[in-house]
Amino acid sequence: MSKSTDYKIIPPINLRKVLLHSCCAPCSGEIIEAMKISNINYSIFFYNPNIHPKKEYEIRKKENIRFAIKNNIEFIDADYDPNNWFKRVKGFEFSPERGQRCTLCFDMRLERTALYAYEHGFNIITSSLGLSRWKDLNQINTSGETAASHYQNIKYWTYNWRKKGGSQRMIEISKREKFYQQEYCGCVYSLRDTNLHRRKTGRKPIQIGIKFYGNK
């Protein structure tokens, strides 16, 4: 466990069990360790139909499973249904990062998280999505709160995982665990736009499955 993870977090009142939606091992790693040291009862829920291609999806999922097993945390592997995701974001293929496509993507993933929580006795949901500084935390929280509002006694925990050095600990943990270091958000449109930017700046396109934290 990271030496800098030396604080305890306090969940919302009337906590039974937290369902943590995880987007990837690097982002959820710091949250996993923070919850563990805070003695919070939780499970990991992996539902990310946006990730493309399938090879990238499988790498990210396996890294997350590896860390969950190491920490003896239940890992719930939801279905990979990219076709439904493409239907959900149709018409927003050229929406910018943090735009409407991202809102639709967050809505879809957190709606499924809230439904699973309702059906399996969790009363708190949250997500690792907001740990990345590339994401709009308010956008994610709005999607989470909206998803939770459809079910009685389900609450979305809007804790800011970036504070108190959370983003830096994410990097420390990722290097220590040698996590796979994905180089784009996850969806095919993010991959497209990232590679377009790389070409304009003279960089090589992304190579899936190559880069890991801590490796030179």
| Assigned CATH superfamily | HUPs
Predict the CATH topology. Rossmann fold
Instruction: Provide mean pLDDT, rounded.
Output: 92
Q: State the oligomer.
A: single chain
| Approximate helicity band | 40-55%
Number of domains: 1
The CATH first-level class comes to Alpha Beta
Number of strands: 5
Low-confidence stretches: 1-5
> Whole-number radius of gyration?
17 Å
Percent of residues in beta strands?
5-15%
Features:
single chain, 216 residues, alpha/beta, Rossmann fold, 7 helices, 8% strand, disordered N terminus
Could you please describe the fold and organization of this structure?
The chain is 44% helix and 8% strand. With 216 residues, it is of the alpha/beta class. It has one domain (18-200): 3-Layer(aba) Sandwich (Rossmann fold). A five-stranded parallel β-sheet has the order 3-2-1-4-5, with helices on both faces. The longest helix is centred in the middle third of the chain and has 20 residues, at 100-119. The two termini are 23 Å apart. Mean pLDDT is 92; it is low at 1-5.
Short précis:
This protein is an alpha/beta fold and 216 residues long. 44% of the residues lie in helices and 8% in strands.
Per-chain topology:
Layout: E1 18-21, H1 25-37, E2 42-46, H2 54-70, E3 75-77, H3 82-88, H4 100-119, E4 124-127, H5 137-148, E5 155-156, H6 166-177, H7 188-200
Helix pairs in contact: 1-2, 1-6, 4-5
